[in-house]
Amino acid sequence: MRNKLLLIIFSLFLLTSCSQKADAEYLIGGNWIATAGYEDGEVKGEPNCHFFEEGLEFKDEDTVYNASFDEDFDYRLSDRNKLTEISLIHPGGSSFSYNIHVISENEMGFKGLYSGEGESCYLERK
For 77-94, what is each residue's pLDDT tens digit? Predict the structure, then answer.
């Protein structure tokens, strides 16, 4: 019985320590398309992120192509309250910030922060 309990604890530790982080390595590669809404940790409804619904393509650790605007933006990642926050910075100076929720290797949820609070979407890598 004790061995089973230790195995369960070790398995849970392993699963939590191997969870994917939303860093540049995770984001780069492919085109991220908003295909649905993302509320309370669930994929549901329509996307509510018109700012980039047509897609984001992360080119490197600093640059993301925004298909909705047909131009490159800068982006910054930061860790806040155990979540990764992304700020998408328009060349004109305005910025939009979201918490990133990694769902899988090719799925993530964005939840709007600050002036974008209430916006959310589920993105799939194509």
Answer: 999 878 899 999 999 989
